[in-house]
Amino acid sequence: MRGLIMEMPLLISSFIEHAAATHGTTEVVSRTIDGGLHRYTYADIQGRTKRLAKALLALGVQSGDRVGSLAWNTHRHFELFYGVSGIGAVLHTINPRLFEDQIVFIVNHAEDKWICFDEATRPIAERIAPRLRTVEGWIYLGDGEGLPKTSLAPLRNYESLLAEQDPSFEWPQLDEYQASTICYTSGTTGQPKGVVNSHRSTVLSALIMSTADMIGGYRSGTGEVVMPIAPLFHGNGWQMVYTAPMNGHKLVLRAATSSPTSSTS
Q1: Which pTM value belongs to this model?
Q2: pLDDT at residue 263 above 50?
């Protein structure tokens, strides 16, 4: 005999749908790379992630393709966790603090098709681009619809991509065991090793991280304001990109405002 209650796959897209429906007016506050402050709500984010999903599909991103993010903790980086994974593609969060030889290794190993970067990580992207074998294009996570002067090509502006689409989109019903994100280790023993998360494992992890002994603490309801100290490329920001919208927490993202120092050795 099968159970008859909520027979549905555990998918990441359900988090942002729940947040928009139940906590739609709750804010996500983000420091921008240039030092500004950006505020919007989970209802706003739902629409933008759906625009992003459609934009990626228009670029030719298919289910199973890897999309890299070489970026710091900003609202646009947050949106990638839903717009990329929500269509069945896999978000590869890249640690810009790694040695550049290691970044080249993991991008080639993951076979990233597109890489999203911000102004702080642009110098790294420019230096490693000639050594990347599978990258077909770059997406600039910047304010406005302009593009920086750069050697990266082909190059698209994130906000322009979203502006070309509308938010009328139904998230596909994926296999819950399908990959959602890839995080690589820091290469302390040999080359970095990839850890591939599924939609199912991510949803279950977010539920566990929301319990009283974890991030949820003694008060895990909508009155909570959370700010991940960990970068979003580190274990999905301790899963806060998922636990915050699931629980209705106000989310604060603190971007880096300068390019990290990296080495080729």
Answers
A1: 0.93
A2: no
